[in-house]
Amino acid sequence: MARRWTSDLSPRDVTPERAFLNRRQILGGLAAAGAVTLSSPRARAQEALEPNSWEEITSYNNFYEFGTGKDDPARYAGQMATSPWTVAINGLVDRPGEYAFKDIMARMEIEERIYRFRCVEAWSMVVPWTGFELADLLDMAGIQERATHVAFETLLRPEEMPGVARPVLDWPYVEGLRLDEAMHPLTLMATGIYGRDIPNQNGAPLRLVVPWKYGFKSIKSVVRITLTDSEPPTSWNVANSREYGFYSNVNPDVDHPRWSQATEREIGGGLFSPRKPTLMFNGYEDEVASLYEGMDLSVHF
Ligand SMILES: Nc1nc2c(c(=O)[nH]1)N[C@H]1C(S)=C(S)[C@@H](COP(=O)(O)O)O[C@H]1N2
Ligand SMILES: [Mo]
């Protein structure tokens, strides 16, 4: 498939945990041999990324359904039942329905993607996700001509989610993308981290990952995906449209009204490590800048 991202080097036919270990061995081996696959800029970009530890990725989280503290999700998200799980895919699709998570997993090609992850609060991590391209899931449902956007919704189950008792956001958490953003080969539905099933606090059993956008676009524990013909409402934009736009592309030149977005604090970087410059589109400019050609990014922030 032409749009498949070619820098994934993990073997597909081994268990995910082995795949992660093998990927590193393969990278090392191929690099030594000077293999041509490593000469693509995307492959080099991915190779250079050093992932955060499992501990960092799974203990410092935002998942407001479980509370607003960074350690609340790790403490409380275990209460969320994630099996059985279905994802309703509906709206402007040829094959709407309730898709069982296990059936989705049987049909999708699982890959590893090491991505930068930049929160709008100006901290960042590097996460070795496993998952599949959202485009493949949408193709499975059959996108209709009139569709222009994709809307996403998180599980809402108050008895398992202590955070939703407070009206911090208008629950359920909802997000959205333009269809071309959703179909971009970098856009992932993550089902794992470090080759293990994704922990509840990170959005089990499947969550969106859009690496060139602020973290809040990467909606967790998705139960509904709707193809629409207009821009869908998104939780943080509804809560405060002056501070959080629909696009929310990582952009060091467009500050948040209350803080600079020019630099970021690396999680796990240590108390005295300097802040790191934030990269345009979080370092994915070559891949995604064309999606926003002609748009004023300070207006469409
Ligand atoms: N449903 C839901 N999805 C969510 C959030 C949330 O509160 N609820 N927080 C967002 C924010 S602000 C960030 S930075 C990321 C954090 O993902 P992580 O905990 O896996 O690092 O999840 C995003 N997805
Ligand atoms: Mo965030």
Automatic annotation (TrEMBL):
E.C. designation(s): 1.8.5.-
Any GO BP: protein repair
Database matches in PROSITE patterns: TAT
Catalysed reactions, as listed in the record: L-methionyl-[protein] + a quinone + H2O = L-methionyl-(S)-S-oxide-[protein] + a quinol; L-methionyl-[protein] + a quinone + H2O = L-methionyl-(R)-S-oxide-[protein] + a quinol
Cofactor(s) needed for function: Mo-molybdopterin
Free-text comment on the cofactor: Binds 1 Mo-molybdopterin (Mo-MPT) cofactor per subunit.
InterPro entries listed in its UniProt record: MsrP (IPR022867), OxRdtase_Mopterin-bd_dom (IPR000572), OxRdtase_Mopterin-bd_sf (IPR036374), TAT_signal (IPR006311)
GO molecular function annotation: metal ion binding; molybdopterin cofactor binding; oxidoreductase activity, acting on a sulfur group of donors, quinone or similar compound as acceptor
Sequence ranges assigned to domain Oxidoreductase molybdopterin-binding in this UniProt record: 81-236
Pfam family of the protein (one): Oxidored_molyb
Keyword Oxidoreductase: yes
Binding site for Mo-molybdopterin: 61, 64-65, 119, 154, 202, 207, 218-220
Keywords assigned: Metal-binding, Molybdenum, Oxidoreductase, Signal
Processing and modification events after translation: Predicted to be exported by the Tat system. The position of the signal peptide cleavage has not been experimentally proven.
Similarity comment text for this entry: Belongs to the MsrP family.
Subunit structure: Heterodimer of a catalytic subunit (MsrP) and a heme-binding subunit (MsrQ).
NCBIfam families named among the record's database cross-references: PRK05363.1
HAMAP family: MsrP
Its job: Part of the MsrPQ system that repairs oxidized periplasmic proteins containing methionine sulfoxide residues (Met-O), using respiratory chain electrons. Thus protects these proteins from oxidative-stress damage caused by reactive species of oxygen and chlorine generated by the host defense mechanisms. MsrPQ is essential for the maintenance of envelope integrity under bleach stress, rescuing a wide series of structurally unrelated periplasmic proteins from methionine oxidation.
Protein name: Protein-methionine-sulfoxide reductase catalytic subunit MsrP
The species this protein was found in: Roseivivax sediminis
Phylogenetic placement of the source organism: Bacteria, Pseudomonadati, Pseudomonadota, Alphaproteobacteria, Rhodobacterales
